[in-house]
Amino acid sequence: MEAIQYSSLVKTQSYINGGWHSSNQRFPIFNPANQRCLLEVEDCGLLGVEQAIEAAKAAQKSWAAKSANERGSLLRAWYQLILQHQDDLARILTQEQGKPFAEAKGEIGYGAAFLDWFAEEGKRCYGDVIPAPAGDKRIIVVKQPVGVVAAVTPWNFPNAMIARKAAAALAAGCCFVVRPAQLTPISALALAQLADDAGIPPGVFNVVVGEDAKGMGKVLTESPDVAKFTFTGSTAVGKQLIAQCASTVKKVSMELGGNAPFVVFDDADIDAAVQGAIASKYRNAGQTCVCANRFLVQKGVYQQFSEKFAEALSKLKVGDGMQANIDIGPMISEQAKDTVHQLVTQSIDAGAKVLCGGQANEAGQQFYQPTIMTDVSNDMPIAKNEIFGPVAPLIMFEDEQQGIELANDTEYGLAAYFYTRDIGRVWRVGEALEYGMVGINEGIISNAAAPFGGIKQSGNGREGSHYGLDDYTEIKYLCMGGVNS
Ligand SMILES: NC(=O)C1=CN([C@@H]2O[C@H](COP(=O)(O)OP(=O)(O)OC[C@H]3O[C@@H](n4cnc5c(N)ncnc54)[C@H](OP(=O)(O)O)[C@@H]3O)[C@@H](O)[C@H]2O)C=CC1
Ligand SMILES: O=C(O)[C@H](O)CS(=O)(=O)O
C-alpha cells in the first residue's frame, strides 16, 4: 500500500468492540490495476461476526441514551478526521478498488457528507402530539432507535456505502456492524481507525472482514440481536438476504441493482446531454448502480448526439488510477471485464454495431475500452442487463410516448435521466418515469441532502436526506388516559 502518510490507517484486522481482532486465517487483497498483492487481511470468521453483534448489543442501551447532540458531536469529529485524511483514504481506495484518485477523493468527500448531514439530522428526529378523540386522553408519538443494525456493502464504493449507512444509524442511536466486500476491506478498516480516533465508544461501530460472504451474511441476517439489516449490492443477492431476514422479522432496507435509461429528446441541449452522458456512464468505469445503462435518443438528434458523444469519449484516458490525469481505471476483476465483453459480443451477434471501443484495453488485463454501441434494441443483452462497465448502448426512438415506454421497460427502478428544454415535457416525463430518482438535464444526482433509493426490483428504503433517518427509527405511540380524573 503506497504513499500513505498516516500509517495507522492501513489496518488488516477486524474492528470489534473498539479493538483489533487477531486471527490466523488470512487472505490477500490485490490491486486491480496491476494484480499485485497489496497486503493480507485477517479473516475474523463467523465467531468474529457473533462477537461483533454481541459488542453492539452490549453498547446499544448506552449509545441510545446519549443525547442527539452528544452523538452528533462524535459524528462531526469523525467527519473532520475523514476530511483531514482524505488524500490517504483516497489512495487506499484507488489501490484496492481501482477508481482514479480524483474520483476516490470525491467518494471520500461524498461519504463524509453523510456524517456531516446526520450529525445535525439526528437532532431533528421529531415526534408528534395528536389531538385525542376523547377529552381525558392525550396522544403522543415518539421516534426511538430501532436497535442493533447490520450491514453488508459492495466493492464499488468501499468507503461511501459504509459512511452513508453508518451516519444515519449512529445518529438515530443505533449500534452498527458492517461486513464489507471481500475485495475491498481496507477502506472499511481505515474508517474504523478514524471512528476510534474520533472517540466513538467501543461496540458502536464494528467492521468484520472475511471471505465467507454467505456464512457471515447468514449470521447477520438471522441473529435475533440484530433489529435492522441494510444491504447495498445486486438484486439477486438482495432477494436472498431479505428472505433470510424473515426468520426474525427484521426491518430491512435494500439498495440494489439498476438499469438507468438516459433519454435524449430532440429539443435537448445536445452538448449538455453529452456532458451528462460522459459523467453518468463512465464514472467508476461504469461500475455504479446509477450509471446510465441505456441511451434512448430521439430520431431527430440521434446522429448528432452519437457523433458528439464519440468525440467526447475519445478524450478519456484509461490507466492506473494512481497516475495523474486518468479518467477510467480497471474493472474490479478479470471476470467482471469478461462479463461486460460477453454482453457486447452477444449484442453484436443480435445486430448491434460498435461505434468505438468494444475490446479489452491494452492498459492491463482488467481494463476495458470506453465503448459506444449503435443499432441497439431494448431486448438485446446489452440493454436488458445491468452492464456494470464502460459501455454505452444507443437505442433510437420516435416520439415521447415510445421514449417513456422504452425507459420503463425493465424490472429495475433506481435512477433515470432525461434531457429536454420543454417545461411541459419535464413534468410529463418526470412523473411518468417509474424510478426512485430522476435526473433532469443532469447526469450526477447523488448527494447527502437527497433521498437515494429505488423502487421495483431496485430495492426499498432511502439513504441520505431527512428521510434517511426513517430506516433506523421505530414509531411508538403513547396514549395517556385519565387526564381529567
Ligand atoms: N443500489 C445501489 O446503491 C448499489 C447496487 N449495486 C449493485 O450490486 C452489483 C454489483 O456489486 P456486487 O458487489 O458485485 O454485488 P453483490 O451483490 O455480489 O455483492 C454485494 C455484497 O454482498 C456480498 N454478498 C454476495 N453474496 C452474498 C450472500 N449470499 N450472502 C451475504 N452477502 C453476500 C458481497 O460479498 P463479496 O463481494 O465478498 O462476495 C458484497 O459484499 C450490481 O448489480 C450493482 O448495481 C452495487 C452498489 C450500489
Ligand atoms: O454504489 C453505488 O453505485 C452508489 O450508490 C452510487 S452513488 O451513490 O455513489 O452515486
UniProtKB/TrEMBL annotation:
PROSITE patterns per record = ALDEHYDE_DEHYDR_CYS, ALDEHYDE_DEHYDR_GLU
Active site residues of this protein: E255
Q: Where is the Aldehyde dehydrogenase domain?
A: 21-477
* UniProt keyword terms in alphabetical order: Oxidoreductase
Top-level EC class as recorded in UniProt: oxidoreductase
Has UniProt tagged this entry with the keyword Repeat? Answer: no
Q: What is its EC number?
A: 1.2.1.-
Q: Which CDD domains match?
A: ALDH_F5_SSADH_GabD
Q: Which Pfam families match?
A: Aldedh (PF00171)
What's this protein's family per the entry? Answer: Belongs to the aldehyde dehydrogenase family.
User: Know the name of this protein?
Assistant: NAD-dependent succinate-semialdehyde dehydrogenase
The species is Agarivorans aestuarii
